[in-house]
């Protein structure tokens, strides 16, 4: 057996398409992706669709869409296990021929009885090896008409250990491991066996996956050894907990990755946040995809479970929104504005983004804010008008409107104009700014009034002022 140390790195993400891609899966994928990228290796995507009852094409598509959205395109694949059945059968036949696997004719009821007997003796429930061939052992007569399963001949002594990239040394006594069924009576291969053949055939050097798979690893290692395959390195990452310390679930909010797209999170922010959830680079909280790739290592994967923190995700998202180019932001927000019935093409959407982005946590909030500039105008409700559009306020507004006819329509000159009207009329800022907002936007709360006027444009502003 050769070592993997000198081989080019090959990692894989191997989701079961039984539902959307959830946050935990996305994070595992990200670690495998970043590890491959860091080492200029290959990132393989493998769809583990052998559970035909629960796998759906929609789930496959949802996984592909999520990977695409997050920018984690595989270098190879997607490979589909259902398309590799002949290969699994071939390896089963090889193992039978080599004597590393054997036919077992015990019925499910008999196996259950063996387990029961072991339990009664105070042992671990297990298959008792009735059909396991040993030198000098006579096997029972084959029951008529019964189709056998194929079992792996697991070593019966010693231990199976590996140096886990995340958890350190993990060891299982081989006596704890049953002779695993690798093919069912109808010949279909079982889960652990397909994983083994795939990892072997795909030349996977490093397996990073959730720690719910720790118990599968010694079984997989033993089968790989029986096949004479090189062993990958394994790293098992702890799960993600909700803010209350319970396993992260729907109760804590969205767990479907694409839901975060809907809610207006940027993939850049999701990548940064997910990477930081269970991995660290000193005290760095904010880093780009490129930095992640150049810094990523398995040494700094956390041994303990990490906690989902929606506030922190919002903070990270706000950071990426703030530092994004206005035109780029506008592009990402335009459809959201259109969905709200706004006409993004009719306004200076990049300008609007520039005004709003410092205070927005999501693209949805930006789209809401942009509607001020492109929703159909509704004049202020009567009571608001009554309260703010008083006689002196109307006089100040008329003065402003008159002087605005010749104004250079920029935020700076509008600001200067507002100040000039205030000074000439002996008013304080709110005495003009609030009536202006009410008259021009129909509401009292808006971003800075000079900026709002500048972005609404001269015609609109003068028309609305004239209509009060
Ligand atoms: N298909 C498995 C899952 O979705 C992952 C198997 C593996 O990574 O080895 O949990």
Automatic annotation (TrEMBL):
<feature type="short sequence motif" description="'HIGH' region">
    <location>
        <begin position="15"/>
        <end position="25"/>
    </location>
</feature>
<dbReference type="GO" id="GO:0000049">
    <property type="term" value="F:tRNA binding"/>
</dbReference>
<feature type="compositionally biased region" description="Basic and acidic residues">
    <location>
        <begin position="120"/>
        <end position="135"/>
    </location>
</feature>
<dbReference type="GO" id="GO:0004818">
    <property type="term" value="F:glutamate-tRNA ligase activity"/>
</dbReference>
<dbReference type="Pfam" id="PF00749">
    <property type="entry name" value="tRNA-synt_1c"/>
</dbReference>
<dbReference type="InterPro" id="IPR014729">
    <property type="entry name" value="Rossmann-like_a/b/a_fold"/>
</dbReference>
<protein>
    <recommendedName>
        <fullName>Glutamate--tRNA ligase</fullName>
        <ecNumber>6.1.1.17</ecNumber>
    </recommendedName>
</protein>
<keyword id="KW-0963">Cytoplasm</keyword>
<dbReference type="InterPro" id="IPR033910">
    <property type="entry name" value="GluRS_core"/>
</dbReference>
<dbReference type="GO" id="GO:0005829">
    <property type="term" value="C:cytosol"/>
</dbReference>
<dbReference type="InterPro" id="IPR045462">
    <property type="entry name" value="aa-tRNA-synth_I_cd-bd"/>
</dbReference>
<comment type="function">
    <text>Catalyzes the attachment of glutamate to tRNA(Glu) in a two-step reaction: glutamate is first activated by ATP to form Glu-AMP and then transferred to the acceptor end of tRNA(Glu).</text>
</comment>
<feature type="short sequence motif" description="'KMSKS' region">
    <location>
        <begin position="247"/>
        <end position="251"/>
    </location>
</feature>
<feature type="binding site">
    <location>
        <position position="250"/>
    </location>
    <ligand>
        <name>ATP</name>
    </ligand>
</feature>
<dbReference type="GO" id="GO:0006424">
    <property type="term" value="P:glutamyl-tRNA aminoacylation"/>
</dbReference>
<dbReference type="InterPro" id="IPR049940">
    <property type="entry name" value="GluQ/Sye"/>
</dbReference>
<comment type="similarity">
    <text>Belongs to the class-I aminoacyl-tRNA synthetase family. Glutamate--tRNA ligase type 1 subfamily.</text>
</comment>
<feature type="domain" description="Aminoacyl-tRNA synthetase class I anticodon-binding">
    <location>
        <begin position="334"/>
        <end position="467"/>
    </location>
</feature>
<dbReference type="GO" id="GO:0008270">
    <property type="term" value="F:zinc ion binding"/>
</dbReference>
<keyword id="KW-0030">Aminoacyl-tRNA synthetase</keyword>
<keyword id="KW-0067">ATP-binding</keyword>
<comment type="subunit">
    <text>Monomer.</text>
</comment>
<dbReference type="InterPro" id="IPR020751">
    <property type="entry name" value="aa-tRNA-synth_I_codon-bd_sub2"/>
</dbReference>
<keyword id="KW-0436">Ligase</keyword>
<feature type="domain" description="Glutamyl/glutaminyl-tRNA synthetase class Ib catalytic">
    <location>
        <begin position="9"/>
        <end position="315"/>
    </location>
</feature>
<dbReference type="GO" id="GO:0005524">
    <property type="term" value="F:ATP binding"/>
</dbReference>
<keyword id="KW-0547">Nucleotide-binding</keyword>
<dbReference type="InterPro" id="IPR004527">
    <property type="entry name" value="Glu-tRNA-ligase_bac/mito"/>
</dbReference>
<dbReference type="InterPro" id="IPR008925">
    <property type="entry name" value="aa_tRNA-synth_I_cd-bd_sf"/>
</dbReference>
<dbReference type="InterPro" id="IPR001412">
    <property type="entry name" value="aa-tRNA-synth_I_CS"/>
</dbReference>
<dbReference type="InterPro" id="IPR020058">
    <property type="entry name" value="Glu/Gln-tRNA-synth_Ib_cat-dom"/>
</dbReference>
<dbReference type="Pfam" id="PF19269">
    <property type="entry name" value="Anticodon_2"/>
</dbReference>
<keyword id="KW-0648">Protein biosynthesis</keyword>
<dbReference type="InterPro" id="IPR000924">
    <property type="entry name" value="Glu/Gln-tRNA-synth"/>
</dbReference>
<feature type="region of interest" description="Disordered">
    <location>
        <begin position="120"/>
        <end position="143"/>
    </location>
</feature>
């Amino acid at each position: 057996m050769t070592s993997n140390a000198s081989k080019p790195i090959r990692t894989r993400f191997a989701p079961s398409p039984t539902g959307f891609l959830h946050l935990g899966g996305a994070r595992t994928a990200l670690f495998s992706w970043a590890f491959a990228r860091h080492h200029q290796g290959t990132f393989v995507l493998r769809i583990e669709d052998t559970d035909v009852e629960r796998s759906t094409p929609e789930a496959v598509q949802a996984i592909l869409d999520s990977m695409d959205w997050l920018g984690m395109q595989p270098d190879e694949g997607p490979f589909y296990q259902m398309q590799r059945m002949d290969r699994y059968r071939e390896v089963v036949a090889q193992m039978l021929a080599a004597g590393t696997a054997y036919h077992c004719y015990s019925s499910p009821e008999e196996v259950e009885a063996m387990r029961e007997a072991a339990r009664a003796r105070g042992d671990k429930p297990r298959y008792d090896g009735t059909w396991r061939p040993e030198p000098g052992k006579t096997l029972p007569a084959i029951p008529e008409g019964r189709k056998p399963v194929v079992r792996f001949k697991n070593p019966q002594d010693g231990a199976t250990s590996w140096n886990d990239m995340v958890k350190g040394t993990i060891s299982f006594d081989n006596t704890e491991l049953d002779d695993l069924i690798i093919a069912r009576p109808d010949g279909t291969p079982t889960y652990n066996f397909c994983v083994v053949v795939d990892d072997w055939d795909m030349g996977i050097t490093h397996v990073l996956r959730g720690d719910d798979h720790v118990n599968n690893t010694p079984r997989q290692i033993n089968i790989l050894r029986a096949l004479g395959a090189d062993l990958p390195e394994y790293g098992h990452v702890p799960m993600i907990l909700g803010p209350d310390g319970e396993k992260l679930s729907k109760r804590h909010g969205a767990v479907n990755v694409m839901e975060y797209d809907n809610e207006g999170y940027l993939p850049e922010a999701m990548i940064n946040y997910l990477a930081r959830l269970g991995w660290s680079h000193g005290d760095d909280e904010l880093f780009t995809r490129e930095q992640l790739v150049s810094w990523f290592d398995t040494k700094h994967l956390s041994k303990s479970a990490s906690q989902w923190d929606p506030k922190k995700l919002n903070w990270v998202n706000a950071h990426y929104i703030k530092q994004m180019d206005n035109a780029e932001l506008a592009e990402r927000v335009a459809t959201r504005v259109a969905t709200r019935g706004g006409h993004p093409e009719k306004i200076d959407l990049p300008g609007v983004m520039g005004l709003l982005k410092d205070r927005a946590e999501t693209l949805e909030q930006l789209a809401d804010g942009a509607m001020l500039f492109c929703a159909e105008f509704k004049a202020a409700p009567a009571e608001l008008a009554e309260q703010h559009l008083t006689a002196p306020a109307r006089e100040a507004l008329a003065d402003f409107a008159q002087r605005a006819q010749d104004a250079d329509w920029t935020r700076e000159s509008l600001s200067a104009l507002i100040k000039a009207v205030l000074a000439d009329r002996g008013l304080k800022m709110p005495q003009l700014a609030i009536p202006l907002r009410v008259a021009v936007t129909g509401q009292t709360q808006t971003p800075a009034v000079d900026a709002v006027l500048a972005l609404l444009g001269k015609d609109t502003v003068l028309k609305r002022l004239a209509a009060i």
